[in-house]
Design a protein that fits this description.
By secondary structure, the chain is mostly beta strands. The chain is 1% helix and 44% strand.
């Protein structure tokens, strides 16, 4: 039995079931409100949801039962002595140390919790970074959307910000450095590409089987790192994929050479190429890519899949894959992408999909 947390424009939906037998709605929370992201901490079992209020901006809520009462977490706010406001929280990620969680938001901010998500504190090392005045937002805002902890090393952390790029810390976020070597922002004039704060990273996932191996979906390109993000190699040019633009990326936990992307036409037309919904898979670290779409809409389906709306559960040949679209459709595979089926239809536009 698999549980899927689906953040949508009109609330959180918790589904339960399996691909073969189907899924049903187990719980719904925050009806009518934008849920950007929701997850379940595998260590404590606690559920956390990022909810965007039209008045208060981004907030984090926690509960032990998604069908019960939710409690607003404390400390999710920017300094009162500044003029910036917290637009939204994009992502929540468990850290390596017990009880530690991280949350990334707009405008390019990182929060940390030491008590399982009940209270939070702004990371001042990143917030006060001297290059911040040069940061520019991507199309979705100045969003810190990717948080990558390192196994068995709570001091190491990676984050990615659109459109600022990849950042690394080796001291639990006290200090940060850029790590965009090898990434080419072709959307910029050539003379401007060396500016470090112009890299529009869309998503980064680390391989649990080989922690120094990472895959990135960029604004234009799919990249791989074999040295923990120090340098990046382009593995997704448009000779192998129908488009080098997309938002989410997923890595098979059992195989560091295996990753999945969902290409979209491009920045001006963020829909599936040709109206054919396909998940593209590599089994050789990006040397080749193969479309997987048995059971997915093949014609006249111009879907948009956002950066947090693709996730997995399990590994290997029985890897489960799930993604949702802004059309309100959610699709799943129980055999590593070989075949697909609809697991939910007619939901509000999907912002995020996470398995629990």
């Amino acid at each position: 039995m698999t549980e899927i947390l689906i953040g949508t424009k009109k609330g959180l939906f918790v589904l339960e079931g399996d691909v073969e037998s189907g899924f049903g709605v187990k719980a719904r929370a925050f009806p009518g409100q934008a849920v950007e992201y929701a997850m379940r901490d595998p260590r404590s079992g606690r559920y956390l949801a990022s909810v965007t209020s039209w008045f208060y901006g981004g907030r984090i809520w926690v509960t032990d039962d998604p069908a019960g009462e939710w409690e607003e977490a404390g400390g999710v706010a920017l300094p009162e002595d500044g003029d910036a406001s917290l637009a939204r929280i994009w992502v929540i990620e468990p850290g390596e140390a017990d009880g530690v969680l991280y949350a990334g938001g707009d405008p390019g901010c990182l929060f940390q919790s030491e008590d399982g998500g009940l209270t939070w504190e702004l990371n001042r090392g990143l917030w006060d970074h001297p290059t911040r005045p040069d940061w520019t937002p991507g199309g979705g805002g100045l969003c810190l959307h990717t948080i990558v902890p390192w196994p068995d090393d709570p001091d190491r952390l990676m984050v990615a910000i659109s459109a600022v790029g990849v950042w690394l810390s080796d001291d639990r976020g006290v200090s940060w450095r850029y790590s965009n070597t090898g990434i080419v922002p072709e959307y910029l004039p050539e003379e401007a590409r060396a500016v470090p704060a112009q890299h529009c990273v869309h998503n980064v996932r680390r391989s649990p089987a080989r922690p120094e191996r990472l895959f990135m979906q960029f604004h234009g390109g799919v990249y791989r790192s074999d040295d923990a993000g120090a340098t990046w190699i382009d593995v997704g040019d448009d000779t192998a994929l129908p488009s080098d633009f997309g938002f989410p990326i997923v890595v098979d936990p059992a195989d560091p050479d295996s990753a999945y992307v969902i290409p979209l036409v491009g920045a001006e037309d963020r829909t599936t190429p040709g109206g054919s919904v396909r998940v593209w898979e590599t089994r050789d670290a990006g040397a080749t890519w193969t479309p997987r779409g048995d059971g997915l809409p093949a014609h006249d389906a111009y879907l948009t899949v956002l950066r947090e709306a693709f996730d997995s559960r399990g590994s290997g040949g029985t890897l489960e894959l799930y993604f949702g679209a802004t059309s309100g459709d959610v699709f799943g595979s129980g055999d590593a992408g070989a075949t697909w089926a609809a697991v939910a239809e007619h939901l509000p536009p999907v912002h995020s999909v996470r398995t629990a």
